[in-house]
Amino acid sequence: AIVRPTPESEAELAFEGALRPKNLAEFVGQEKVRAQLQLLLDAARMQNRTPDHILLAGPPGLGKTTLAMIVAEESGHPLRISSGPAIQHAGDLAAVLSSLVPGEILFIDEIHRMARSAEEMLYLAMEDFRIDIMVGKGAGATSIPLDLAPFTLIGATTRSGLLPNPLRDRFGFTAHLEFYETHELEEVLVRASRLLALEIASDATAEIAGRSRGTPRIANRLLRRVRDYALVHDTDGLHAVHAALELYDVDELGLDRLDRAVLSAILARFDGGPVGLNTLAVSVGEESETIESVVEPFLVRVGLLTRTPRGRVATKAAWRHLGMTQESPGLF
Ligand code: ADP
């Protein structure tokens, strides 16, 4: 399997933390979502209640966690961070919910991966700030109601389509985060270089921004690689950008190895498609969820892939981008 570089090391996480915008005004782009969140927060403040539950949907690295932190910061309430995979039983969720303080913001990342039983508990909690705790088993089982402190749930998901309707319906507001425009990513990079006290030419930031897959996290990470390269090789500017990006297998469109592996599988093994998601996932040795929520959205956005009812199809631009040609159909 091809592993996408993730910010797993302590250093990478600290680096991300340092660059996280602290309030809505510092948050670059997503104007609509920012205005909507601002209204939600102002209304809650004026009515002296907790803000509505918020669902943030979109590919990784577009700012979902950052927005949750900003909502907590701006509403002046503490933030509790959990994630779907960490909630494997209703009891895991009950433990978190029953310990929330009034007004606390509960952020559940990858909420679509939460256990089914916990999901059902969450419905009642979101609606009435109450849960029922089951005690005992079989005929003697009883449920004990437990009142919760009022809280705001912020759920994040890479695919809102995966959430069951009853859960989706209980969010007062859903924000779909879009990929960022290149000029917005330049702004992210200018801000990051200022915070890191890096001097970097504007043609260099423009080049990095254009190759960042529309994703602030990737822009910041590439900036760091370019800085490393410039430091080690005692060079700078565009030269360092090109050399570092080549070293890390980022191409002119910003596609990384996994993006290209998926495309070239469709082209070389399935003659451009259509090919089903699962077949495709197996042929590149990745999970279908990763293909669907991480790889495909960007390929679709740059016009290299289309999703059809019969499967995934590579576009003409994909053949051109990978420098491959489609064999003309033979006579027999
Ligand atoms: P997600 O939770 O959607 O995967 P994060 O909120 O963790 O993404 O964002 C990843 C990194 O990208 C953060 O460290 C932050 O510095 C940066 N980032 C994300 N969105 C923005 C933005 N709109 N403006 C500036 N930086 C951003």
From TrEMBL:
Region of interest (Head domain (RuvB-H)), residue spans: 252-332
Residues reported in the UniProt entry to bind Mg(2+): 65
**GO CC annotation:** cytoplasm; Holliday junction resolvase complex
Which positions does UniProt annotate for ATP binding? 19-20, 61, 64-66, 127-129, 170, 180, 217
Gene Ontology BP annotations: DNA recombination; DNA repair
Q: Transmembrane ranges? A: none
Which Gene3D superfamilies would you find in this protein's record? 1.10.8.60, P-loop containing nucleotide triphosphate hydrolases, Winged helix-like DNA-binding domain superfamily/Winged helix DNA-binding domain
Q: Tell me the InterPro entries matching this sequence.
A: AAA+_ATPase, AAA_lid_4, DNA_helicase_Holl-junc_RuvB, P-loop_NTPase, RuvB-like_N, RuvB_wg_C, WH-like_DNA-bd_sf, WH_DNA-bd_sf
Q: According to its UniProt record, where is this protein located?
A: Cytoplasm
* GO-annotated molecular function: ATP binding; ATP hydrolysis activity; four-way junction DNA binding; four-way junction helicase activity
Q: Which SMART domains match?
A: AAA
Quote the record's binding site residues for DNA: 307, 312
Q: Which reaction does it catalyse?
A: ATP + H2O = ADP + phosphate + H(+)
Give the keywords, sorted.
Answer: ATP-binding, Cytoplasm, DNA damage, DNA recombination, DNA repair, DNA-binding, Helicase, Hydrolase, Nucleotide-binding
Q: Where is the AAA+ ATPase domain?
A: 50-181
- Which EC number(s) does UniProt give? 3.6.4.-
Write down the Pfam families for this protein, in alphabetical order.
Answer: AAA_lid_4, RuvB_N, WHD_RuvB
Q: How does it assemble?
A: Homohexamer. Forms an RuvA(8)-RuvB(12)-Holliday junction (HJ) complex. HJ DNA is sandwiched between 2 RuvA tetramers; dsDNA enters through RuvA and exits via RuvB. An RuvB hexamer assembles on each DNA strand where it exits the tetramer. Each RuvB hexamer is contacted by two RuvA subunits (via domain III) on 2 adjacent RuvB subunits; this complex drives branch migration. In the full resolvosome a probable DNA-RuvA(4)-RuvB(12)-RuvC(2) complex forms which resolves the HJ.
Q: What does this protein do?
A: The RuvA-RuvB-RuvC complex processes Holliday junction (HJ) DNA during genetic recombination and DNA repair, while the RuvA-RuvB complex plays an important role in the rescue of blocked DNA replication forks via replication fork reversal (RFR). RuvA specifically binds to HJ cruciform DNA, conferring on it an open structure. The RuvB hexamer acts as an ATP-dependent pump, pulling dsDNA into and through the RuvAB complex. RuvB forms 2 homohexamers on either side of HJ DNA bound by 1 or 2 RuvA tetramers; 4 subunits per hexamer contact DNA at a time.
Domain description? Has 3 domains, the large (RuvB-L) and small ATPase (RuvB-S) domains and the C-terminal head (RuvB-H) domain. The head domain binds DNA, while the ATPase domains jointly bind ATP, ADP or are empty depending on the state of the subunit in the translocation cycle. During a single DNA translocation step the structure of each domain remains the same, but their relative positions change.
**Record's family?**
Belongs to the RuvB family.
Put simply, this protein is called Holliday junction branch migration complex subunit RuvB
The gene it comes from is ruvB
